Structure formats: structure tokens, C-alpha cells
Amino acid sequence: MAAPSEGALRRFSLAVDAMGGDHAPDSVLDGLELAAERHPKAQFLLVGDEARLREALKSRPRAAKLCVIRHAPDAIPGDMKPTMALRQGRNSSMRLAIDAVSKGEAAGVVSAGNTGALMALAKIVIKTMPEIGRPALAAITPSARGDVVMLDLGANIQCDARNLVEFAIMGDAFARAVLGLPNPTIGLLNVGSEELKGDDRVRQAAEVLREGHAGINFHGFVEGHDIAAGTVDVVVTDGFTGNVALKTGEGALKLMRDLLRQVFTSSIPARAGYLLARPALERLREWMDPRRYNGAILLGLNGVVVKSHGGTDATGFAHAMDVAMDMVTHGFTQNIREGLSRLATHAPPMTSSEADAPAVTAQQD
Prior knowledge:
Layout: E1 14-17, H1 26-38, E2 44-48, H2 50-56, H3 61-66, E3 67-71, H4 82-88, H5 93-102, E4 108-111, H6 115-126, E5 136-143, E6 146-151, H7 161-179, E7 185-189, H8 200-210, E8 217-222, H9 224-229, E9 234-236, H10 239-264, H11 268-287, E10 296-299, E11 304-307, H12 314-329, H13 332-346
Parallel strand pairs: 1-2, 1-4, 2-3, 4-11, 6-9, 7-8, 7-9
Antiparallel strand pairs: 5-6, 5-10, 10-11
Helix pairs in contact: 1-12, 4-6, 5-6, 7-8, 7-13
């Protein structure tokens, strides 16, 4: 069953950049086929080469049933600079998908395309919520106690106290929507857990959060080892520190996998031990599968924006779709506005650093 063309004006659950990613459009459409099974009542606006997509959807009936195609003659290359994408990408699949969110046709957008281009276009076209100073890049990571939300992961290299408080409110709303936590715990990443540790901006943000002005469950300061331990559900920090922490964690997981491979291939007894331990190791592999954590989210915009890893497969892209659908379904944006409203009503003024260097988006691929 081929996807229908556009007819009467409708409200789409999500707009999907069909041509973004290393293996697009096949990986995107395969992911949509899985997502369609999980979200049978959704409506997706599929943006890309119409002739190519219509033919490809013939072998993906579930996705075809839920998708409407919008033709885009161009696609943004993975190596195009954000400034060039802003100037030359007006007819690209990514830009037209983002335009659909800006115009209110879709509640959010998912793309596996160029990270820098997506973040730049989303911030300029969809725009930051009026109450938010700067959007933040968030992701989900594994821990000993379950999934943990981390932000910011690179969208803002320098942050002031108010930025950190806003990140905490956005992280709380995200954990409620995507992780299904009714009262997630929030921690500020610091060099120690004592109240006197850290610089002025971190201590000032902690004071506001500790006094309950934002209406969230603030745990206090956490340290680097608390991320993997799962001490809190949401870890808040500036983009520089968050990106370093994320990449360090990814490197540690890769090292562990490599060491296990070396250990279990080092001798015949070790190989025999692997056969005995294989069921447990398979469970560990599934738990640490990076596809389960695919999808970086730009929080604080007037719409949902999810960036899938460019090299992911169908399972990974479907997970990014799941994240976006959870955010749309659970009123993520409205929850942020409510938290910011409480903050504006009750919190004392916080120092701002508007003269800081402009935000810089870190590449995720």
C-alpha cells in the first residue's frame, strides 16, 4: 500500500526527514515500519524524494498506511556546514520537515541528518520558547539503576545560573514524558556533593532549586561517578562538561566490551567460560545496546526536535521515533511552561551572563 499524497490540511504527529542519515531513506523507512507497529494511530509527514519514497513504501505497508509524502527536491549533505545549510537548504528534506513544525502542521521532527544543520535550522526556524534563555541538548544513558537523562551535552559551552535552572526544569519534564517517572530526582553535576563546592553559578542554581521555586525534586550536587551509579534520574550541567562526561562514559563502555572480548578469546578455557556465561553476557549486551539510547533531543524549542544517529539501523531510528512520540503524547512543552511559570512567580532574580560567547552545538555523530 503506497503512502497517500497530501490532501486536506491535517495535524501530523511528527514530520520525518526521510533523506537524512548514512543509509537513508531505507534505514528511515525500516525504522518507520517498526514505529508504525508501536504507534498505529500516529500520522507521519514523510519529507523527501516523492518518487523514491513512494516506490520504497510499497514493501513497508504499515509505514505506508500512516505516512503522507511531501516532496523535497534536495537533501543536506552530512558534511555541509550549518551556515551553508541555512543559505542553501531551503528546499531540502530537513528544512521542509522543520518548516512543518514551525507552521504548526506537525508537533515535532525527527532526522538522522547533519547534526549541526539540524540544530541551527531548528533554533532559527522553530525558535526557542520565549521563557527559555537557551535550548539544551539532552540524551538518555544507562546506569546501574536504570536510564538517566543528561543535559546539556554540547549545545551551550558556557552557561549561567538561570540556564542551569531552566535545564533542570526541562530535564524534569523530559524524564516524566519519556521515562515515565512521576517525580524524577534532579542533580547538578559538580566537583563534590558538599553545598560549598563549585563556582558561583552552580551554587546559585542549586540554591534556587533547593528552595523549591521550580517545583521539582532536587537531590543536590552529584559527582561524575553518580552518573553511572544512577544516583539521580536527571543530571544537569553545562554543555562543555556534559559533552566531556558523555564521551568519557561512551569510551568506558567501549573499553569494557573490548576487554571482555579479549578475556573470553585469550585461551581455550576462556572460550569454554564464555559458553557458560553467554546467556548473562547476551543480557548485558542488550542492556548496553547503543540503539536503545539513540536520539539526542534539543529541548526548549516551540516543538519537539529529535536527532537520530546518522549511522543507526531501523531499530535505532524507531527508538528515536519512540522518544519523539512520547514527548508529543505527554505534553512535554506544556510541562516546561508550567515549571517556568512557577519559577518566574516565586524565584528571586538570578545573575545572567548574556555577554558570554554564543552557544556552540557539539556534533553527536
